[in-house]
Amino acid sequence: MNGSGVEEIGFPGWPQFAPEVPEEVSKVLTSGKVNYWTGKIGMEFEDAFAKWMGAKMAISCTNGTAALHIALSSLGVGAGDEVIVPSYTFIASSFSVVQAGAVPVFCDVTEDHTIDPAKIEALITKRTKAIVVVHLYGVVCDMGPILEIAKAHNLYVVEDCAQCIGGEYKGTKVGLVGDVGCFSFCQSKQFTTGGEGGCVVTNNEDLGWECRSFRDHGYDVRTRMNMLALEEKLPYIHRRVGFNYRLTEMQSVIGLCELRRYDDWNLARRFEYAAMYDKALGNLRGIKAIPLNTAERKNSYWWYPILLDLDVVDITAKDFIKELIGMGIPCSGILWPESYLEQAYQNGVGFGDAQFPFKSKEYTDPKTVDYSKVVCPVARSLRDQTVSLFLHPSWEKEHIEKVIAAVKEVIAKHTR
Ligand SMILES: Cc1ncc(COP(=O)(O)O)c(C=O)c1O
């Protein structure tokens, strides 16, 4: 015992890889066919992910940030455009907008941690081209009203699914609810392709081919793939400016292995552990909210953020977390509630001496990029309330039980 009444047990780390991964990676290395165009596994992984999603196309790429950059640029988002994005999300959700040449316009969230549909319309101007929604922590955004607004104003909807692999809105997997979905397979995510990785998915084939081209030096990828099938020499036809955002074959083979056990092991355990937390914490005095999960908005549980009821407990999230960590419980606070406070936005540090796009009067409305005037009060208020618990599939039930016991203990100690 550690003196707190909670028995000492170690918490397994995350990620952990499927048992066959080392051998599969080693086979790829030995084959020497290690890049997307020399091996076949990159395309196999894309096909498997598309099949699992129920998508017409999946375009793998180096990371989730690249996926967003690819999606936005392939939709034609660029200089002169504005994109509405929640402030409360990892910085890449908005940096990718800047990478595409456009400017982010920050929207507040509701207490379910996702973009507040009621606050979107007031941010729309004649420059607005898209909305980036972020299914944060695995909580699925309220897509119905968002899609309606997008339709009424002719805007694209880009889904940032970096933290939500397998969430569903009205039975459709997230990533296919809007125009295009962007995934991250980074180290901490629901599964990883070996530390970094990403994918774009869409049912719009023209958009999918544009993404493929943008991902890959602007090649005419359709022609390139046909030539490959005919075993002819690969032509270099650069039909547009693009990047090199390709995944390696080693990463793709890891992706194949992790995807194979995703539904039955990874996601199944997350659901089981979420149900344990729900039961133990859902009606506990001192906890104001547990993660939203409804038949319409089906959570995929990357993490399990709870909101403290600060009228009932006399401790804010920061100190609550300190106590949990002191008891040996891994957990986290909010990492990024107000992206607009970052120096890059406050000081307008973009590209080149011109600080494009922030200081570009030709393309950008100076009022929009005066981020010193932006405030998202709900996102700000969540900082003191939010404690994220983990439910990694590498854990066993006893680890979840230990977290529950510790949370209850800290709440009991601090109930007013
Ligand atoms: C919400 C969100 N969007 C985008 C990204 C970017 O993904 P990556 O780190 O793979 O570039 C992340 C990853 O941390 C994320 O959490």
Description:
With 416 residues, the chain is of the alpha/beta class. It has a 7-stranded mixed sheet, sandwiched between helices. The chain has a 4-stranded antiparallel sheet with strand order 10-12-14-13. It has 2 domains: 21-261 and 336-355, Type I PLP-dependent aspartate aminotransferase-like (Major domain) (Aspartate Aminotransferase, domain 2); 263-334 and 380-414, Alpha-Beta Complex (Aspartate Aminotransferase, domain 1). It has helices at 21-31, 41-53, 64-74, 92-99, 143-153, 205-215, 221-229, 249-260, 262-281, 317-326, 343-346, 377-385, 397-414; strands at residues 57-61, 82-86, 103-107, 128-134, 156-160, 168-169, 172-173, 180-184, 198-202, 287-289, 297-298, 304-308, 331-332, 386-389. Helix 1 (21-31) packs antiparallel against helix 8 (249-260), helix 3 crosses helix 4 and helix 3 crosses helix 6. Residues 63-65, 89-90, 92-93, 134, 160, 162-163, 184, 186, 198 line the site of pyridoxal-5'-phosphate. Residues 63-65, 89-90, 92-93, 134, 160, 162-163, 184, 186, 198 line the site of pyridoxal-5'-phosphate (PLP).
